[in-house]
C-alpha cells in the first residue's frame, strides 16, 4: 500500500487562491512563480478570428485538447496592454447565497453534475461564468456577493490547467512536462468532494502525474510556521477563514468563514475614490518618459533666480524666452506635443512627462482588471492598522460625520500657510529668499508625507489618503464601519440591485476576532496545543500594525464568560521568541517577514514535500486507477 522509494525529482508545490497562483519546487524558501488567477480569452465579437491562433502552440503540451483551452492566454500582466482580450477568473469564491445546493457544494442534481463534467472536458466549450443577479466582475473582490458564509470555491478547470501548463513551461519555472512528476496541491479547508474529483481527474488523466497529494490550506499554514496544531486565521483576497488544526488535520466542525477579505478592502478604496470624484487610470495606459535635460536645467536656474532676487517674481520677456528655447537645442524640441487622443502632463517631482493613451481596443473587463490592480496597490501602500483606542475613536467619528466630503472641502491646501504672504512683508533680499526656500521645502515635505500620486499623475488629497490609510484596514475589525463602506460602494455603483443592503448586513455581522472566538468555542474538545496559538496568514495581514492590533483584540477574549473556562486550561508560559507575541492566553505566532506570512501555505507545502516519507502520503497512478478518485483521495488525503 505504501511506497517508500525515493522520488526521482523534487515534488512541485502549487498553492492557489482567488487572487494569485503560487508555484515552486519543494525545498525552496519562497515560490518561484506567482501569477494572477485569471486567463485571457478572445473577445466574444472576435472569437472566430484567426488572428488569435498565435497565442498558443498546440504542440507545446498534449494536455491542451479543447478549443477553449487553446485560446486561453496566461499569465496576464495588469501593467501590459492587451487588445480584444477579456479577463476570465479561474477561481471564484461563491458565498452561500450564490453557492449550489447540491452535495458538498456541488451541483444540485445528477444532470447538473454530468453537465459540469462535460464542461470540464471541453465538450460544451468555455463560457465566462456569470452570477444570476449580475454585479461587479468577480476579480473586483466585492463581486462574489455579500451573503452569509461559508461558501464554496468554483474553479474553472480548463483555465486552471492552462495556468499549470504555463507555470511549468518556459514562461514559468521551466520544469518541463508534469508527466511522471510528483505534485502537492492545496485545497480549501472545507471539504469539497466534487472539486477534489475534478483535481484528481485533471492531474492523473490530463497531466499523467505519478503521485499527487492534496492538503488543506490551514494545515499547510501550520507547517509553514513549524507547527502541527493551532488556530489559523487566513485573511485572503475574497474571504476570511479561521480554522482549528490538530496534528495536521483540519477540524471541520471548527471552521468559520465569512466572505470578506483584502479584495473587499480594495473595493472600498475604490468607493472612496469615486466619492471624491477621482478616476483611476490602468497602468498599461500610462506612458512615462524622462524630461529633457535642458528643460530641467532651465527650471532649476529659474528657481535659483527667484530665490536670490530681492523683489517679487518678474515675468520673463518674450525675447528671453526665445533665447532660452534656442539654447535648449534639438534635445528640448524633441519633446513634441502629445499624440492625438493622448493627454499629457509633467511630473515635476520625478522630472518625467506623463502621457495617458486612450486604448480604444481594450476590452472593458481587461480595463477594470487593470484599474483594480492600481487600487489594490494603493490600498496596500496606504493601509495602516491603528491601536484599539485610536481606532475606536476613528470609527465613531467616521460613522457620526455623514458629511465628511463637504467637511474636507474647507481644509486649507497643503503647503500654503495662513496669514500674510512673504511678499507683503518688509525685509532684505536674504529674508525674502530664505522664506521662499523654506516654503518650497515645506511643500515638498507635505507632498512626500501626505500626498499620494497615481500613475497618471493624479494627486490624492489628504482627506482621501487619511480615509484609505486608517478607515479601510479597520473594516477587518469593525462590522459597523464595514457596513458604512458597503453602503458607500453601493451608492457609487450605477447597477445597485434590490437586496444589496440585506446581503451587506449579513456579511457585516461577523468580525475577524468574532470568528476566532467562535472557532475556539467550537474546538473546545481539542487538545491544549490546538488552542494555545493563533497563526495569522494571508495577504490581508500585511498592513503595518496588523499584528499588534490583532494581539490587542485577542487580549479581550479571556474576558468572555463563555470562553474563560476554556482558555484557562491553555494558560501557560507566553511566547516571547522571534516572531511571537504574547496575547493573554492565546499566543499570536507569526513571522516578522511579510512574504512568509503571505506565502505561509506554500511554504508549508515546500516543507512537507521535503520529508522523506512524502511519497507514502501521495496517491499514486495505480491507486487512482484501482480505487477511483474519491476512494483514493479519502484514504490518503484527509
Tag the structure with descriptive keywords.
638 residues; alpha+beta; Nucleotidyltransferase, domain 5; seven-stranded mixed sheet; 25 helices
Q: What does this molecule look like?
A:
The model is unreliable at 45-67, 102-111, 123-149, 310-315, 328-336, 402-432 and 572-584 (pLDDT under 50). Strand 8, helix 4 and strand 9 form a beta-alpha-beta unit. Strands 10, 11, 12, 13, 19, 20 and 21 form a seven-stranded mixed sheet that branches. The chain has a six-stranded mixed sheet with strand order 3-2-1-8-9-22, sandwiched between helices. Strands 14-16-15 form a three-stranded antiparallel sheet, with no helix packed on it. It starts with 11 loop residues before the first strand and ends with a helix. The radius of gyration is 28 Å and the shape is globular. It has a domain at 12-218 and 607-636: 2-Layer Sandwich (Nucleotidyltransferase, domain 5). The longest helix is centred in the C-terminal third of the chain and has 22 residues, at 429-450. It is of the alpha+beta class. Helix 5 packs across helix 22 (600-609), helix 6 (262-275) packs antiparallel against helix 14 (462-474) and helix 15 runs antiparallel to helix 16. The chain has 25 helices and 22 strands. It catalyses: ATP + H2O = ADP + phosphate + H(+). Belongs to the actin family. It holds the Pfam family Actin. This is Actin-like protein 3b, putative. Residues 96-132, 295-345, 399-449 are annotated as: Disordered.
Amino acid at each position: 500500500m505504501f511506497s517508500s522509494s525515493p522520488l526521482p525529482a523534487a515534488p512541485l508545490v502549487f498553492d492557489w487562491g482567488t487572487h494569485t497562483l503560487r508555484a515552486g519546487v519543494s525545498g525552496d524558501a519562497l515560490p518561484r512563480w506567482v501569477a494572477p488567477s485569471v486567463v485571457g480569452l478572445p473577445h466574444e465579437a472576435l472569437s472566430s478570428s484567426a488572428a488569435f491562433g498565435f497565442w498558443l502552440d498546440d504542440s507545446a503540451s498534449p494536455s491542451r485538447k479543447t478549443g477553449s483551452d487553446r485560446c486561453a492566454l496566461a499569465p496576464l500582466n495588469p501593467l501590459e496592454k492587451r487588445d480584444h482580450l477579456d479577463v476570465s477568473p479561474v477561481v471564484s469564491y461563491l458565498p452561500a447565497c450564490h453557492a449550489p445546493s447540491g452535495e458538498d457544494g456541488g451541483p444540485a442534481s445528477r444532470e447538473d453534475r454530468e453537465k459540469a463534467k462535460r464542461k470540464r472536458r471541453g465538450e460544451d466549450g468555455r463560457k465566462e461564468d456569470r452570477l444570476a443577479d449580475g454585479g461587479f466582475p468577480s476579480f473586483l473582490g466585492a463581486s462574489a456577493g455579500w451573503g452569509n458564509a461559508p461558501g464554496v470555491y468554483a474553479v474553472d478547470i480548463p483555465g486552471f490547467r492552462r495556468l499549470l501548463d504555463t507555470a511549468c513551461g518556459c514562461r514559468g519555472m521551466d520544469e518541463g512536462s508534469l508527466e511522471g512528476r510528483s505534485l502537492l496541491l492545496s485545497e480549501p479547508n472545507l471539504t469539497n468532494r466534487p472539486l477534489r474529483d475534478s483535481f484528481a481527474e485533471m492531474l492523473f488523466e490530463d497531466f499523467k502525474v505519478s503521485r499527487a497529494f492534496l492538503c488543506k490550506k490551514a494545515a499547510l499554514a501550520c507547517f509553514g510556521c513549524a507547527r502541527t496544531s493551532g488556530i489559523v486565521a487566513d485573511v485572503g483576497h475574497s474571504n476570511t477563514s479561521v480554522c482549528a488544526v490538530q496534528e495536521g488535520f483540519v477540524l471541520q466542525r471548527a471552521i468559520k468563514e465569512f466572505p470578506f477579505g483584502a479584495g473587499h478592502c480594495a473595493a472600498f478604496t475604490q468607493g472612496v475614490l469615486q466619492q471624491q470624484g477621482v478616476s483611476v487610470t490602468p497602468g498599461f495606459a500610462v506612458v512615462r518618459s524622462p524630461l529633457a535635460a535642458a528643460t530641467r536645467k532651465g527650471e532649476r536656474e529659474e528657481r535659483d533666480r527667484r530665490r536670490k532676487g530681492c523683489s517679487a517674481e518678474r515675468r520673463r520677456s518674450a525675447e528671453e524666452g526665445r533665447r532660452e528655447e534656442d539654447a535648449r537645442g534639438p534635445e528640448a524640441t524633441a519633446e513634441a506635443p502629445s499624440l492625438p487622443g493622448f493627454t499629457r502632463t509633467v511630473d515635476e517631482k520625478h522630472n518625467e512627462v506623463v502621457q495617458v493613451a486612450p486604448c480604444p481596443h481594450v476590452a472593458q473587463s481587461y480595463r477594470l482588471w487593470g484599474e483594480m490592480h492600481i487600487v489594490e496597490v494603493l490600498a496596500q501602500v496606504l493601509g495602516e492598522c491603528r491601536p484599539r483606542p485610536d481606532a475606536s475613536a476613528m470609527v465613531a467619528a467616521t460613522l457620526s460625520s455623514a458629511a465628511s466630503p463637504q467637511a474636507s472641502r474647507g481644509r486649507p491646501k497643503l503647503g500654503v500657510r495662513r496669514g500674510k504672504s512673504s511678499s507683503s512683508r518688509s525685509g532684505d533680499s536674504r529674508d525674502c529668499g530664505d522664506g521662499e526656500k523654506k516654503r518650497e521645502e515645506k511643500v515638498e515635505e507635505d507632498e512626500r508625507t501626505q500626498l499620494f500620486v497615481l500613475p497618471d499623475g493624479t494627486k490624492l488629497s489628504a482627506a482621501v489618503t487619511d480615509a484609505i490609510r486608517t478607515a479601510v484596514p479597520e473594516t477587518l475589525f469593525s462590522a459597523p464601519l464595514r457596513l458604512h463602506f458597503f453602503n458607500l460602494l453601493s451608492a457609487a455603483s450605477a447597477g445597485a440591485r434590490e437586496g444589496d443592503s440585506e446581503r451587506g448586513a449579513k456579511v457585516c455581522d461577523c468580525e475577524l476576532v468574532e470568528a476566532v472566538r467562535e472557532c475556539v468555542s467550537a474546538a473546545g474538545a481539542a487538545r491544549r496545543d490546538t488552542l494555545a496559538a493563533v497563526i495569522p496568514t494571508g495577504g490581508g495581514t500585511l498592513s503595518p500594525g496588523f499584528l499588534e492590533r490583532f494581539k490587542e483584540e485577542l487580549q479581550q477574549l479571556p474576558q468572555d464568560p463563555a470562553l474563560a473556562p476554556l482558555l484557562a486550561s491553555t494558560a501557560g508560559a507566553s511566547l516571547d521568541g522571534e516572531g511571537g507575541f504574547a496575547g493573554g492566553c492565546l499566543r499570536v505566532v507569526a513571522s516578522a517577514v511579510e512574504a512568509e506570512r503571505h506565502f505561509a501555505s506554500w511554504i508549508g507545502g515546500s516543507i512537507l514535500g521535503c520529508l522523506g516519507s512524502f511519497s507514502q502520503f501521495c496517491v499514486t497512478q495505480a491507486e487512482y486507477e484501482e480505487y477511483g478518485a474519491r476512494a483514493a483521495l479519502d484514504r490518503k488525503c484527509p
